[in-house]
Amino acid sequence: MLELLLVQGRLLKKVLDSIKDLVTDANFDCSVTGFSLQAIDV
Fold it and tell me: Roughly how many angstroms between the first and final C-alpha of the chain, as a whole number?
């Protein structure tokens, strides 16, 4: 189970909205050290 608490949730939405047109397949890695995205662009 993953639970996120964002002070500014709009910031994450803006980032994801800008990425969605650039990549078709992406993997999100959520860990204690942070949040990362590995994607293949086309």
Answer: 31
Q: What is the dihedral of CA 16, 27, 29, 34, to 10 degrees?
A: -40
Distance, CA of 13 to CA of 20 (rounded, Å): 11
Using one digit for the tens of pLDDT, what is the confidence trace for 2-42? 566 778 888 888 888 888 888 888 888 888 888 888 887 66
pTM above 0.70, yes or no: no
- Outline where the chain has alpha helix (H): 9-19
Structure tokens at 25: 């397949």
